[in-house]
Amino acid sequence: MNAGRDMDRLLDRSAFPGPALDARTAGVSFVGETRFNGCIACTHWPRAALQGLLPPGLALAANVSATPDVHPVIFIFGEQLEGTILFGGMSIPLGVHYSEFGLAIPYVVHRDGRSLHTYVPRMYSSFFPPVRDGNVHYGFGKALAALAWHGCIATLTAPDGGLLWHAAVEPAGPWSRSARHAPPNLAALRAALALPILGRKHNGRYVRSYFDLGFADAQTRPLRCAISIDAALIEGLTPQRCYAVPDGAFEVRGMVWHLSWPEPLG
Question: Cα(69)–Cα(17) distance, rounded to whole angstroms?
């Protein structure tokens, strides 16, 4: 479900007008922190097809760009390291290490408001506690699966060995620590994932939380990325291939990932 490999830019925040409440404005505090090594890739999907995959109450925000018939979908996959609980001004290391995969649809709105959100319909983790907490508290639709690398190929497999998803990645530039030399569109992807994050619990209720992705001490480099969806990751999604938009994928080492406590939407 790819809207074209030759699109010359990533759809960013300016293409989706509407109010958005960031973590600082909302006054939330972060309760979890990890170091993340992995990849973030943005693809463009036809809006009409993507809208049909959203659950009741959600809609894609209006796209006022020069390509109004497509919408971004973001894949995040890699290793979560140095898991830490943040509580009362203290950092409590957990010493956990696990692989994780996330599917995120930025720039969605709920029927009860106009504010922009990023909806996370599915995540996978190789470690059960994040699966449980991700479902019970955050509504991320988490399941157990293992992410593995075979050279330049990343695979996601279910506990029964079934292939869920795989991707081929290829470096498109050198590693950099300097913000001035960050991969193109890194800021746009970070802004999309800084929107309030929506999850949907098993009872159909939506909850909101926040991510904060820190790159101050991270290394990044641009990628080319081809993705194959090999199973129905979410209801209605059929196996298919898609590609990261030009300048819309990157690899990261040592990114700091913060997560807030969830709250009921509204």
Answer: 16
